Amino acid sequence: MKTYIVGGAVRDNLLGLPVQDRDHVVIGATPEQMLKLGFRPVGKDFPVFLHPHSHEEYALARTERKTEKGYKGFVFHTDPSVSLEEDLVRRDLTINAMALADDGTVIDPFGGQEDLRRGIFRHVSTAFAEDPVRILRLARFAARFSGTPHAFTVADETMDLMKQMVDAGEVDALVPERVWQEIARGLMETKPSRMFEVLRECGALKRLLPELDCLWGVPQPEKYHPEIDTGVHVMLVVDYAAVQQFSLEVRFAALMHDLGKGTTDPAIWPRHHGHEQRGVELVKQVCERLRVPTDCRDLAVMTAREHGNVGRSQQMRPASLQDLLDRCDAIRKPQRFLALLEAARSDSFGRSGLENIAFPQQEFLANVLQASLSVNAGLIAQQHLGQPQKIGEAVRIARIDAIRAYCKTLGATDLD
Question: For the residues 389-395, what does the mean pLDDT come to?
Answer without folding.
Answer: 91
